[in-house]
Amino acid sequence: MTSATRPYGTRGTRGSVGSQGGTGPGASDGQEAAAILERARVSVDPELRAAVDALPGPLRRIARYHFGWEHADGTPATGNAGKAIRPALVLAAAAALGGPAARAAAVRAAAAVELVHNFTLLHDDVMDRDATRRHRPTVWSVFGDADAILAGDALQALALGMLAEDPHPASTAAVARVAACVVELCAGQQVDTAMERRDPGEVALDEVLAMAEAKTGALIGCACAVGALYAGAAEEDVDALDAFGREAGLAFQLIDDVIGIWGDPRHTGKPAGADLAVRKKSLPVVAALSSGTQAAVELAALYAAPYEPADLDRTALAVEQAGGRAWAQDQAADRMSRAMSELARAIPDPESAGGLLSLAEFVTRRSN
C-alpha cells in the first residue's frame, strides 16, 4: 500500500508504543523524524540565539547554559539543546496545511513555542528538585533557585514578545493561544505539586490524566495549532490540530513516565528510576496503585516508606507486576489512535500529513 492511500495509524503496532526492543516503526521512519527535527533545529536556532542574546548579561549567561551553548563559566559548549519536538510540530503543521511558504513564515513562532517550553523546564526543575537535565546539572543546581526562576520568566516574556512583534497576520491569534496555554500549563503544574503532597492512595487515575494533559498535551497541541494558524487554516482545522497535539502529547507523557522508571540513564541523562526515587505519582505508578493487586499493596508500602536505593529494583518490579507499565503503553496506543482521528479531520491525506505523523510516532515509540 502506498503512502498516498495508506490509512492513518498503520505504521507500527499497538504493542510497540513506548516499548524498548518492540516492533515499532522501521529505521526509515526514525530517520524521517530525525531529519525533520534536524531541519527544525537549523531553522529555529538562529531565532532562539538572537532572542537569548538580547537578554541582560547575567540572564543571558544562565539561558545560554540552559540551552547547552555555554558551560557554567561562560566558555562555549556544544551541548544538547533538546530534541526540538515542539518547534518541529509548529513547522510541520504549517507545511502540511500551507506548504513551504507557510513553514518559512512560521519559524519565529516555532522559536517562541520552544522558548515557552524551556521556561517550563527551568521552573519544573526548581519545583521538582531535579538535579540533572540533558546530561548536565540543572540551572537551579548551578546558579540557584532565584536565577533559574528569573531566567524562566525572561524566556516566557521573550516568547510572547517575539509573537507580538511578528508582522504575520496570524501573530495576534498566536499570542492569545500561547498565553492561554501558559495559564493551562501553570494550572497543571499547580495540580501536580499539590498532588505530590497527598497520600498515594488518595490520588485518582483520572486526576493524573487530566493533569498530564494540561502539563504536556496543552503545549504540544498549542504548537500544532500555531502552525495551522500560520498556514491560514480554517478554525475547525486549527482546533483539530490542537486536539491531535493534545492526544499525542498525552501519549508522549505516558511514555515519558515509563522511561522515568525503566529508561537507560545513558540515553535519558537522568539516574535510573529517578521518578521512583522521589516518589513521583507518575501515570504508571498511579495505575499500579489502583489495580487492587497484591503488587499494588507492596508498592503502596514502599511508597509510604523513606526512599532506600536498595529498594529501587523492587519498587520498579512492583509497578510492573501491578500492571502499571502495560497500562501506560496501552493507554499511549489508545491516545495515539485518537490523535490520528483528529489529524485526519484536518488533513485527510496521510501523505500531506507525513511530517506530523512521523513526529507523533517518534515521540511515542522512543525508549529514551
TrEMBL record:
Position of the signal peptide: none
Lineage top rank: taxon: Bacteria
A Pfam family of this chain: polyprenyl_synt
Keywords: Magnesium, Metal-binding, Transferase
Single GO MF descriptor: prenyltransferase activity
Biased composition (Gly residues): 18-27
Location of region: Disordered: 1-31
UniProt keyword Metal-binding, yes or no: yes
PROSITE patterns to which the protein is assigned, alphabetical: POLYPRENYL_SYNTHASE_1 (PS00723)
Gene Ontology BP term (one): isoprenoid biosynthetic process
Name of the protein this chain belongs to: Polyprenyl synthetase
Organism: Streptomyces phaeofaciens
Transmembrane segments: none
CDD domains: Trans_IPPS_HT
